[in-house]
From TrEMBL:
Sequence segments annotated as region (Disordered): 381-400
EC number(s) recorded for this UniProt protein: 1.4.3.4
GO function term, MF aspect, one: monoamine oxidase activity
Domain Amine oxidase positions: 95-616
Domain of life where this protein originates: Bacteria
Keywords in alphabetical order: Oxidoreductase
Protein name: Monoamine oxidase
Organism per entry: Sphaerisporangium siamense
InterPro entries tied to this protein: Amino_oxidase (IPR002937), FAD/NAD-bd_sf (IPR036188), Flavin_monoamine_oxidase (IPR050281), TAT_signal (IPR006311)
A GO BP annotation: amino acid catabolic process
Keyword Lyase: no
Gene3D superfamilies: 1.10.10.1620, 1.10.10.1790, 3.30.1490.470, 3.30.160.490, 3.30.70.2100, 6.10.140.1210, 6.10.250.1500, FAD/NAD(P)-binding domain
């Protein structure tokens, strides 16, 4: 009998499966996305790696900073006024489609936005505004935070007049407030040019970070700061004899790869000069794009299974270990741990809905694209009406409208595009990308509580419970998140109170990939009782005293229009598939986070929207 050990299984799990074809896209070749180190195929060419490196850094072939260019188009100047207006069809009213349409309309083009959803715009920017006992409460189904190193997003938020406030990625003291005015958006281009969205009006300072939330694994519970001070107890529960935290072990494993692109100065890493930086990223891509995260940690970094288990659990990486090393490396290398994160007061949905008035006459709801036909004379998009939403079963489809234009911008996710007939057929490289690009799943389970128990100290618990009080573990934080090895995996606490409300909504479970699949098989109501049980394991049974019986949940894999959370590469896809994804095909242009290299972020969608608008306006 042939057996496969765990490492062999992980290598097989990293292979990207090629499914059967739907619609006009022909079958892909038998060779799917490879894994390394024994990828069985030649390494990507240096030219390909240099091209992807430039795309990653957002610099063109002449080393000009495209982010700066996009900021000037999106925020300052808009597109040049056109002398030859086009009829532009935009498929999808997510943030990429809305921004591209807005820019093109202001430049003088005639735009039509075609949206399948019958009841909302925004795509994966979605805020729950109902379903809670307290009508004042709301919570995010999708995008919930914006880091300060995403200048396009923050500058657009400010330009639209949407109030933003700190999102505490790391917990702070309950009742703590930031001091000073919200700072302007600042971007330093590759050539040293500094772009600002406005003047500095004072010094902004966020509250001190506590790291007081919980780690609960293998029956052991500690606060994060306790683990940082002495990680031996939790590490030993995995069979790991190491005095370093899992974050330190992971960072030290990644440092030799970082050395290709940055140098250490004092206590910080600093990017190498641009020519060296581009070549460094190209070397990283050529050597490591074929690795899954598990292959890298076990085969390249030579970490033990115990170390990988501990890293996966504590750093919330277990479910993505079979996916591309580059995804995790980008996250850990391009994200400044000292960054400030922001949220939109009133909900992330404000961002797409602030754009809607400028396009109200151009957005066609309840129009699902089923066929795209291009010819010498233009583009035709046939749609059907479903009278449904992204959460409800559709009514029987019936033909709706056919839209005609000179060009089209396709912003819907590739899994959705796979169900659209396209004639004539797209290029082989594009068809392969549509078939193979991996989309990850992500699921949230949110629970409403009548009191903000996560902010309580023990005296608060005594006061609230009275004679029912029993000693327990008071969390006593605002914002931040806890991690556990139960099905909830990651829990986030609200960063701010909702005015006029004593309660709040906890993101009880936020999970990806296989961790999300454990929830996706349940119906919505069923998830709430299990999420509450898992919260009680970490915080104690007494938290159930304040559960209102209400909640909301979002499975992006089960969403009828999203088909997943976001694009997340499997090994090899960054160099094999990505180069073809953003490239126009005749009259068809492509935008959306999946066409950028900032997957799952609004910033990536905005980069792609400006790029596609520039292409059409050229």
């Amino acid at each position: 009998m042939t057996t496969i050990d765990r490492r062999g299984f992980a290598r097989l799990a990293g292979l990207g499966a090629v499914g059967s074809l739907v619609g006009a896209v022909p079958p892909a070749p038998a060779s799917a996305s490879p894994v390394s180190p024994a990828r069985g195929l030649a390494a990507p060419s240096l030219d390909t790696c240099l091209e992807v490196a430039r795309d990653l850094l957002l610099v063109d072939e002449r080393d000009r900073d495209l982010k700066l260019k996009y900021l000037r188009v999106l925020i300052d100047e808009g597109l040049p006024k056109t002398r030859s207006p086009k009829k532009v069809l935009v498929v999808g009213a997510g943030i990429a489609g809305l921004v591209a349409a807005t820019l093109l309309k202001r430049a003088g083009h005639q735009v039509t936005v075609i949206e399948a959803n019958g009841n909302r715009i925004g795509g994966r920017i979605k805020t729950f505004r109902s379903g809670f006992a307290d009508p004042a409460q709301y919570a995010e189904a999708g995008a919930m935070r914006i880091p300060d190193f995403h200048p396009l997003t923050l500058a657009l938020v400010d330009k639209l007049g949407i109030p933003r406030r700190p999102f505490y990625n790391v917990d702070v003291r309950p009742g703590a407030v930031a001091t000073g005015p919200v700072p302007p958006v600042v971007y330093t281009a590759r050539d040293g040019h500094v772009w600002r969205s406005g003047p500095v009006k004072g010094r902004f300072e966020a509250p001190k970070r506590l790291n007081h939330t919980w780690i609960r694994v293998n029956g052991i519970i500690q606060r994060r700061d306790e683990y940082a001070a002495d990680p031996r107890k939790i590490n030993a529960s995995f069979g790991l004899k190491d005095r370093r935290t899992t974050a330190q072990i992971l960072d030290e494993a990644l440092d030799p790869v970082r050395d290709h692109i940055s140098v250490v100065r004092g206590s910080e890493r600093v990017d190498k000069p641009l020519p060296e930086l581009i070549k460094g990223w190209a070397r990283v891509l050529r050597e490591f794009d074929g690795y899954s995260m598990y292959n890298f940690l076990s085969g390249h970094a030579k970490l033990s299974d115990a170390a990988i288990d501990a890293i996966g659990t504590v750093e919330n990486l277990t479910s993505r270990l079979p996916l591309a090393f580059m995804h995790t490396f980008l996250t850990r290398s391009l994200v400044n741990p000292a960054a400030t994160y922001w949220e939109l007061a009133g909900g992330s949905r404000l961002l797409p809905y602030r754009l809607e008035p400028g396009l109200r006459g151009e957005i066609r709801m309840d129009r699902r694209a089923v066929r795209i036909t291009t010819s010498k004379s233009g583009v035709r998009i046939d749609t059907v009406s479903e009278k449904g939403s992204d959460e409800s079963s559709s009514a029987p489809q019936r033909p709706a409208e056919s839209f005609h234009g000179d060009v089209a911008i396709i912003t819907i996710p590739f899994p959705a595009l796979r169900h659209v007939e396209i004639a004539p057929a797209l290029s082989y490289a594009k068809r392969r990308a549509i078939i193979e690009l991996h989309y990850d799943s992500a699921t949230k389970v949110l629970l409403e509580f009548s009191k903000r128990w996560w902010e309580f100290d023990e005296e608060d618990w005594k006061r609230e419970l009275g004679p029912r009080y029993r000693p327990g573990r008071a969390t006593h934080v605002m914002g931040g998140g806890s991690v556990a090895d139960n099905a909830n995996r990651f829990t986030y606490y609200p960063s701010h109170r909702v005015p006029g409300s004593e309660g709040g909504v906890v993101l009880a479970s936020y999970v990806w990939a296989d961790d999300a699949a454990r929830w996706d098989s349940m119906d919505d109501r069923e998830r709430y009782s299990y999420a509450l049980r898992n919260l009680r394991e970490v915080h104690g049974d007494r938290v159930a005293e304040f559960y209102t019986g209400h909640g909301q949940t979002q499975s992006w894999l089960r969403n009828r229009y999203a088909f997943g959370e976001a694009a997340v590469f499997t090994p090899g896809q960054m160099t094999e598939i990505h180069p073809a994804i953003p490239v126009p095909e005749g009259r068809l242009h492509f935008a959306g986070e999946h066409t950028s290299l900032k997957h799952a972020w609004i910033e990536g969608s905005l980069e792609s929207a400006v790029r596609a608008a520039l292409e059409v306006n050229a």
